[in-house]
Amino acid sequence: MADVGVRNRVRVGGSGFTVFTWQSQPIGFARQIGHTSPAPVGPGPVAIHPMDEPYPVQVITPAAAGMGTLTLELYELYGGKVWDRLGAKVNTNDNTRVVGDDTTTLRGAVDLVDVFIKVASIPGEIQVVKYIRPPTLKGRTIKPYTEEYHNCVITNIVDGETIEVGTMEVLKTITVAYTHMTRGGRRSSAWSLRDRPFGGTAFSANVAF
Question: For the domain that residue 82 is a member of, what is the CATH number?
Answer without folding.
Answer: 2.30.110
